Amino acid sequence: MYNMLWVSVIQIWQTSQDQNAFEADNDAQGSTNTPQSQSIFSNITIIGPRENSSSTFNTNFRRGIHLRRSTKESLVNSIIGGFPTGVRLESANSENYFLTSKELKLNGNIFTSNGKLFDSTSVNTKTISDEFVKQNRVLATWAETGLTAPLCCQIKSSPDSKFTCVKRFRIYRTSCMV
């Protein structure tokens, strides 16, 4: 089944020097203390500076998603693309929440134009990666998403090493599998 997704004009402004677009942890020690970080984010579009394999950009850009330190944060039904690494899952607890207890959800997402799809600190990286691929769509290029307008925001490094989006863009309409 396909539904239409409508998105209006978007302006992005980044100021981080260690650039992960979406990063979550439970606490600085990575404990399982309560209250525990456990939100569900959905219907988000995260666009990094990597349009294709020949793109050049500031090396401070790292990951679209970085989940660590016992977080149970979830990201579903979203588009993540244009980063050196699409997602990094870090910490035995967060890996268990994804693989075993299913309290951390990464499913129904579209990952595209990332240099490397997935990495982890675990000895179970292959198992986690395989499960991750089963639960998400992985596309090599932005064109494969079926989006009808230019996507990649022209992001550059400003003189003070902070990031600024210098171009606005509009996504008029796309078909997304539900």
Helix content: 10-25%
Describe the global form: globular
The number of helical runs is 2
Cα separation of the termini:
6 Å
Low-confidence stretches: 1-16, 153-178
Main sheet attributes: strand count, strand direction, barrel closure = 4 strands, parallel
What is the strand and helix layout of this fold?
Elements: E1 2-5, E2 19-24, E3 40-42, E4 45-47, E5 61-67, E6 74-76, E7 79-81, E8 85-89, H1 92-99, E9 106-107, E10 110-112, E11 116-120, H2 125-135, E12 137-139, E13 155-157, E14 163-165, E15 174-177
Parallel strand pairs: 2-5, 3-6, 4-7, 5-8, 6-9, 7-10, 8-11, 10-12
Antiparallel strand pairs: 1-15, 13-14
Keywords:
disordered N terminus; mainly beta; 178 residues; four-stranded parallel β-sheet; disordered C terminus
Short structural summary:
With 178 residues, the protein is mainly beta.
Describe this structure in words.
With 178 residues, the chain is mostly beta strands. Helices cover 11% and strands 32% of the residues. The protein contains two helices and 15 strands. A four-stranded parallel sheet has the order 2-5-8-11. It has a four-stranded parallel sheet with strand order 4-7-10-12. It starts with a strand and ends with a strand. The model is unreliable at 1-16 and 153-178 (pLDDT under 50).
